[in-house]
Amino acid sequence: SMPVTYDNTKSPYYSEAERTFDSAQNWTGSGADTLSLYFQGVATNSAESLYVTVKDSSKSKTVAHSNAQAVQAAEWQQWKIPLSEFTSAGVKVTAVKALVIGVGNSAAPTAGGSGIVFIDDIGYGRSAQ
Fold this sequence. Notes:
The protein is mainly beta and 129 residues long. The relative contact order is 0.39. It starts with a strand and ends with a strand. The protein has one helix and eight strands. The longest helix has 4 residues, at 84-87. The radius of gyration is 15 Å and the shape is globular.
């Protein structure tokens, strides 16, 4: 798993890990319609928002986890995000240039806390039916 250590007590008051792709990625192969990742935090973490941003060459869309205290989840959690969350904002999921996983609020940064969250099994696909 990838540890993401965050300290949002200092400017810019959010923390991010970004993966930039050398060539654009098509996340719709074989009918894929969902971005999925697993995360696990620590119960003693400061409560912060967990978010994912997907970028194409000109647009981006950020989706925050519905649980504002997700980084405090002491057990592995799967987070499924429909690709339509990104395409509805005009992001081309057929030409993804970068994936960002962050803690805090990059759109409206305010001083927060610190902690660590682990990220694993990032992928895209379609749920078995």
